[in-house]
Please model this.
Amino acid sequence: NAGVTQTPKFRVLKTGQSMTLLCAQDMNHEYMYWYRQDPGMGLRLIHYSVGEGTTAKGEVPDGYNVSRLKKQNFLLGLESAAPSQTSVYFCASRKRANYGYTFGSGTRLTVV
Amino acid sequence: DAKTTQPNSMESNEEEPVHLPCNHSTISGTDYIHWYRQLPSQGPEYVIHGLTSNVNNRMASLAIAEDRKSSTLILHRATLRDAAVYYCILRAPNPGTASKLTFGTGTRLQVTL
Model:
């Protein structure tokens, strides 16, 4: 049981480049989330999904897009990367209400 | 979201119990109290959660005050592997919005020999 797997683990982008971060879970969880974590700060929610085919904005959605075409995958896209998007990105999933969250190990993204 | 207040840091000796406090004076009647921890260079890890009654699991115990305005995470015997940032989070049970977690800055626990 792999849990939540994030790909890639590290990436360096140039300003203006695009990329997609992949989150995959094998636990048949309904809800999935993307967070970012900056130094000295707690995690902030970017986007989330309550089921296949659905997405919603979190507290810091600008500059990101997401898709949930398959229940097990939640993709986070950066169309035109900016240095302000340098961060560690965490994906999480949850079975349904009143269950705990399972987090991935993170993707460290640097935009230069 | 209701706010939580935690000390910025705490220290403990190995193999001693640790009590991590959390104040949440504006908690609503349906908010669950969640605890997560984040080890260095890792994603957050679920520890425990509860609503009104004290809860125990293999990782820790959660003691909730009778008025629910505070709670305490108890690690019964701290080990070096318990050194992490511990987050106390309130979560409203609202499946329509996925009951997203709102992280504060947590308590950094240092464990020494």
